[in-house]
């Protein structure tokens, strides 16, 4: 199980996030996510999704259901496509999208992003770094992410930020 602690500037509380992947076959798994808000002491997000990977095309597709404490049940489809920029795959271009629809099929939310990632392995002994520069297409918001081993900091140009520590 992958577990992380997350804090964002607009949340005012620490969130414990857990994710588990259950293999169904070589390139397909059932993925579960859950978030527990430490301020209210209750789960605020639950998700179950079937994810299919297409390694020859550097792509993945997921279909599932999400439950938000305030927004209730949503159906979701998400996809990601990677384009290697360098021969050693240290620099890549990603396009990712997500489409959510509520349980009554009335309300819809879309998210599309394009981003470059640069993985720098062994900056120092046992230290890997990832730099990511992206653009949220629908919201028209650029963002930057810096990851170092277990720590990730994400900021955007409208003042939002979040920190994640993977346990």
Automatic annotation (TrEMBL):
Membrane topology classification: Multi-pass membrane protein
InterPro entries in UniProt: OEP21
Keyword field: Chloroplast, Ion transport, Membrane, Plastid, Plastid outer membrane, Porin, Transmembrane, Transmembrane beta strand, Transport
Residue spans crossing the bilayer: none
Main localization, broad class: plastid
Keyword Transmembrane belongs to the record: yes
Places the protein is found: Plastid, Chloroplast outer membrane; Plastid, Etioplast membrane
GO CC annotation terms, alphabetical: chloroplast outer membrane; etioplast membrane; pore complex
UniProt GO MF annotations: porin activity; voltage-gated monoatomic anion channel activity
Biological process per Gene Ontology, one example term: regulation of monoatomic anion transport
Function: Voltage-dependent rectifying anion channel that facilitates the translocation between chloroplast and cytoplasm of phosphorylated carbohydrates such as triosephosphate, 3-phosphoglycerate and inorganic phosphate (Pi) depending of ATP to triosephosphate ratio in the plastidial intermembrane space; in high triosephosphate/ATP conditions (e.g. photosynthesis), export of triosphosphate from chloroplast (outward rectifying channels), but in high ATP/triosephosphate conditions (e.g. dark phase), import of phosphosolutes (inward rectifying channels).
Family: Belongs to the plastid outer envelope porin OEP21 (TC 1.B.29) family.
Protein name: Outer envelope pore protein 21B, chloroplastic
Organism: Solanum tuberosum (Potato)
